[in-house]
Amino acid sequence: MNECYIKSFIYLKTNIFGWIVIVIIMVNSSYFYGFEETLGPHVILSNLFWWTSLVLVIAAYKNRRIWNVGEMPWAYLFMTFLFFGIRELGHLTQSPMIGSIRYVFGIFSAIFMTSALIFIYMKTYKRKTISKNMSFIPLVLALIFPIFFIYLYFSGTQTENLKNIFSNIENILWIIGGSITVYTTYMLGTKSTGGFVNVFMFFQFAAIFAILWKFLGFIGSLGCPIPYSIREFLETMFGVFAIISMYVLERMLRNLSKRIS
After folding, report:
1. For residues 129 and 58, what is the distance between their CA atoms, to the nearest angstrom?
2. What Cα–Cα distance (Å) separates residue 162 from each residue in 167, 168, 169, 170, 208?
């Protein structure tokens, strides 16, 4: 346990790349963010993070033989970044309906990110085999929400109410899923060596910022005024650590593949 902390601390001290990105964002936060929801540079930045992360997932998948976690965790990692990227594209329009639908994609992303890390935890930490039926549970769970959305829409629920309902559902699922991810990545980090410690550490940081971001969003929906700038900053930090985790994973698997071949 202590060895894991030491390795993580050394990595934090030596990996300058991630912290340079963070400092740049913090210094420029007053420029990127306002106090009301707006279409600004932070939207472009967020889309860049998530779509680049998707490309990194695809690149890392090419060397999947190095990391024996099975096919489903890779599929769910891919869908995590794909659906969150689609969610972020929803910022580019002012349509109330699309503003409601994009939360469904955020819900998908929360479910699939949590599931990917749970399956990796079960495969590499618990040494358990994931059955075919179990591997499809996240898909079944995710399908509930678009069906629920369609039901509410055709039952006459106003668009603004749809937006509030699914925003709160997304908040709750990211808080729960992020908490599970913090645990699974911590446990995986204690059993990992080399670059995998770094991958799980950055995944954990991403989950922590997701929890903070969605917690503020949730209490904001209850009537407690939270500046939009703070929530958007936390969301951007979520994206920063997500892309760093995938960059570290892709680079590590690529280097290992070169050494083996």
Report:
1. 24
2. 8, 10, 11, 12, 27
27-76: per-residue pLDDT in tens? 445 444 444 555 667 788 888 999 999 999 999 999 988 888 989 999 99
Q: Which helix (H) or strand (E) holds 50?
A: helix 41-61
Residue 171 has pLDDT above 70, yes or no: yes
- Are 50 and 242 in contact by the 8 Å Cβ rule? The answer is yes
Cβ-based neighbours of 151, under 8 Å, separated by 6 or more: none
How many alpha carbons fall within 13 Å on the CB side of residue 102? 16
- Phi, psi of 117, rounded to the nearest 5 degrees: -75, -30
Domain 2-260 has CATH 1.20.1070: yes
Assess contact for 245 and 77: CB atoms under 8 A.
no
Q: Residue 154's CB: how many other CB atoms inside 10 A?
A: 8
Phi, psi of 94, deg, nearest 5: -100, 10
Give the residue from 104, 113, 184 showing the smallest Cα distance to 149: 104
Task: Tally Cβ neighbours within 10 Å of residue 13.
Answer: 9
The residue ranges of every structural domain in the chain are 2-260
Q: What is this structure's pTM?
A: 0.86
4 token code pair: 């894991």
